[in-house]
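Rotation project, supervised by the postdoc (A.L.). Task for the rotation student: set up a whole-complex structure prediction and record inputs and outputs verbatim in this book. Inputs entered:
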Amino acid sequence: MNVNEALEIVGQTNPGMVRSHNEDSITFDPNYGMAVLADGMGGYNAGEVASGIAVSVLSSEIRHRLDAARPEQKEAGAGDEVGFALLRDNVRKANLSIYNAAQSQPQYAGMGTTIVAGLFYDNRVAVAHVGDSRLYRLRGETFETVTRDHSLLQEQIDSGVISKEMARLSKNKNLVTRAVGVDAEVEPEMHVYDVMVGDIYLFCSDGLNDMVDDEDIGATLQMLRGNLTLAASQLIDQANDNGGRDNVSVILVKIKASYPAPRGWWAKLLSWFRN
Amino acid sequence: MPAKLILSMDGAVIKEYALDKERITIGRKPHNDIVISNLAVSSEHAAVITILNDSFFEDMNSTNGSLVNGAPAMKHFLQNNDVIEIGKYKLKYLNDQPTQTTAADFEKTMVLRAPVKPSAAPAAASGEQAAKYESTTQFNATANRAPAALAASAMPAAAASAAAAMPVAMIQILNGPNLGKEMELSKNLTTLGKPGVQVAVLARRPHGYFMTHVEGANFPAINGVSIGEQPHQLNDHDVIELAGIKMEFYFKA
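Outputs recorded:
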């Protein structure tokens, strides 16, 4: 089955209750099995510029490349899969574009963005992330985080300085230790996961998980798994009802069917013709 | 202004210590930052580690132990006005940071730029490494997004009081085998109906209860009128019809 028939994707972004403008950017395209979410930071409108650059670089490069290649093909040199390499290389490319823009234009100095991006292919999802935007997964009854924040708080939790319960009280929220566009180089964290039919993936900015407990997010997805659009708007409503102090963005991806890569001589022939 | 510890005994203040460095040690021996020369105090009794605005108390396996707010503690995440007790001595932790900064300062996402190469920066930094961020990294606060109107610390309280102010609503079934059954709508979301046939969700929000269609070919009806796909606010004594079941929505008196 083609990936676009196997996935249902919805996305919503909202400025929240306090901020006057939205510095989050999202895009998704079931035809390419792609979801990208970025949460920008920086003065004036620089945050929007940074997250906008990140999302457009990733989405346009992924579309362009996947029009001519299959994501599960191996790259010529390094041997990585095209899909995996596309995510990794284009987060780096976005980093450079944002960094250069910030260097050349004083009003953009210091801008940056978090990013979490997923590419679904061959019954798997490749995930790249930088910063504290998250990917969660609901599988059966289990709702859990897939990504680990690049934040001071997460490092404190990892090193045992602070427990998860205490982390809720911390005043050091919102300190990210990695971001796209603030330095000349960035290393996105990359993983590939197998997916199962029925899984729901949630990409979100910290405006959601700072305002709504993981437990409530999970319960909402469980209850509303039959209606993704409603689930997305309920999540945003809950963040705003709890104060909505930050921009809130969510992308939900439901795996409706299996989507193995086409295999066999006919598939190869077909892809050869497409080239 | 950094957080501070106020040392006292029997209610008399002895000295004030600013938490202006990453690690402040407490003990009987003179090399400690806070020296308490009392035999009940171990030579290296405890330490307070401060990372930006957060401070942690840690007992260094002292002989007689330490109490925080009256309870024995080996490790404690300090909150404003916490009291550490070591023998007869008390150390009060004061951190008025949230009121010193504006909500806008407090909320913005900032980048901590560690001078790291990917391979040299495993995700799980040790406690010592994390603690070093303060002194060794370039702390780059990008300018704020937009001014925040709400006081940051007011949020949980405000949300809680909004929820408390709303009267609790109930649903009573009016027909079928469960006739007369009541259900309290105590959760943020409650789903009603039969999965795969017809499902609606009741959302409790600060300004009321809202019903929205989730799945099924037919929409639920309120007082005999189909609500379509849009959320619909429920009023006291509304009659809901869903998958052949009638029920009444009402606020608990």
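Student's summary: Chain A has a mean pLDDT of 91.
Supervisor addendum: Residues 3-274 of chain A form a domain with the Phosphatase 2c; domain 1 fold (CATH 3.60.40.10).
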